[in-house]
Amino acid sequence: MMTGRCLIFFRFLALSLFLVPTMAAGTTIFSDLGPIYSVYNTDAGYSISGAGSGIGNFYAASPFTAAIGGSVTQIDLAVSVRLHSTPPTFDAALWSANSGMPGAPLPGATWNGLSTSTIFGTGYGLVTITDISGLSLTAGNLYFMVLSPVSDDDTSYNMWNYNNQGIDGSVYYSTTQGTSWALEGLHGVGEVLPTTLGAFDILSAPVPEPTTMILLGSGLIGLAGLWRKFKK
Predict the structure, then answer these.
(1) Domain residues of the chain, as ranges?
(2) Which of 6, 64, 107, 183 could pair covalently with 30 via S-S, beta carbons 3.0-4.6 A apart?
(3) pLDDT in tens, 55-94
(4) How far is CA 48 from the centre of its chain?
């Protein structure tokens, strides 16, 4: 027959196993995407194009401040292709900020040859980047999401759709392959109009709930104490 001490021991064991930490929902480092039925503005955006597109070579950089720190696990981009434009490809990268402007690409934060199948002005469709590892952002720091053509001379003509959540900022563009940048929305001398950020989000990995971590630790401490008594 099981003794009282054995019964208590196994009860603590079951409790400790039950209290394995649950995982909180995936956390959002940044997002200006809307709800599922109105994700972004389908009819307006920034040109992401190669020199062979007929409109010139354009990069676009939208600033964002990391709401939380953490490892980046997923990025969703609202990019669409102009009708009949080929190829529907582009590159994406996360850049540091330097005096409020795009600084340089972060190590391990460039994704080449992404492709969109959404036609500009026709509906919603996000380009999703997953399997991201070894990339962490710091809460409160300013960064830039930068989109560019795969080749500076290609014929691509894609659009980075505006967000529809009223989120503005100092958006920059480059016609010099990112070696120099100019502000979107310049109006007159020294006057800058608010510019709508491109639509995207940056997600981080789920993290253990703090309360369950505390409970697990308490259960294991109790379990260790009872085990010592049981052995004696």
Answers:
(1) 25-205
(2) 64
(3) 999 999 999 999 999 999 999 999 999 988 889 999 999 9
(4) 19
Q: What is the DSSP string of 105-158?
A: EEEEEEEEEEE--PBTTS----EEE----S-EE-TT-EEEEEEE-SSTTS--EE
- Predicted TM-score (pTM) of the model is 0.78
Helix axes 210-231 and 4-18, enclosed angle (nearest 10): 160
- Please write the tens of the pLDDT for every residue from 133-181: 999 999 999 999 999 999 999 999 999 999 999 999 999 999 999 999 9
Structure tokens at 159: 């659009």
Chain CA centroid to CA 205, Å = 11
Residue 21 is classified by DSSP as: P
- Is the CB of residue 52 less than 8 Å from the CB of residue 154? yes
Place of tokens 């196994």: 10
CB atoms within 10 A of CB 84: 7
Place of tokens 């953490």: 70
